[in-house]
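Render this sequence as a predicted structure.
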Amino acid sequence: MSVAVCSFGKINLGLRIGSRREDGFHELRTVYQTIALHDVVRVDVVRGAGIEVRCKTAGVPCDESNTCYRMAERVLRSLKARGKVVIQIDKRLPVQGGLGAASSNAAATLLALEKILKTQIPAEHKLRLAAEVGSDVPLFLVGGTVLGLGRGEEVYALEDLPALHCLVATPGQGVSTAKAFSDWDENYGTPAAGGGAHNDRRAELTGNRHSDTINLFSQSLFAWHSGVNPRGPTKTGVSAKDGGRAEALLLDLVRAGIENDFERVVFPQYPELRDLKRVLEREGARYASLSGSGSALYGLFADKAAAQKAAKSFVAEGIPAQLTVSLPRREYWERMFKPQAKS
């Protein structure tokens, strides 16, 4: 039996980096938003044993390091299931692009195996398996607008944003998340242990700053999101009558000061990405940001005409970009097993 799954991407509506934790990860605060751009992951279980990952896209590992492989291994072990798992990944999302492609692929593998093996894995067990594979994986078991805490793996469903028109710029270079965190630590992180009372005082001050930053994000998020959805979720796409509300929502997002801390370390390393953000803003995006650690950037638009106009400008300048929409939770799940759906 073979099952194909839409493996949707995500963007980050703000991302704050806190202090390094004892487990080596950083404390994070972010709002994830799923979008309609997606890979397609096809999973098959046949006679035999083992796990095989197939993908023709450069940069995608097909060995044990692949997130799909790691997820399949855990699911089989957890369910005490047998058979050879064959995973085919049709890449449409960029590799190392900040859109959560690898994490989404892993979640898609889990959901496909659950369907193939005709087993309903308890929700808490699925979230635990997802968190073992990667920090971003659990969000794809929720979909829509999602609050991410901890290292990003602690997820809570928020009231869905209305669907918004989105232009995603996907430059060719990849950005290493590990390198971005390393650069953050070098420039903004807590000083290394040792060095006497002076260094202890610096560490204390840095720790306070991290705490203040996290708290400020929480306050800004509350102020912004409290007015997001008084009428409930909307269908994908923003109608003309919703355009004014969408614009007000995006302006409030800017006023709330919700930003992505990774821009502070990624933009100096890749000034062309800062320039792309400026192009998005110049072309009418009401809110523009790096997604995750990049390299993808996105702009949110109040209406479809503005997004289409911006897309044409990007094409004219030779900048890779794709038009899409944010994907509310209900439609995220309705489209999950319909890979023929267009973004």
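Summary. The mean pLDDT is 86. The two ends are 26 Å apart (CA to CA).
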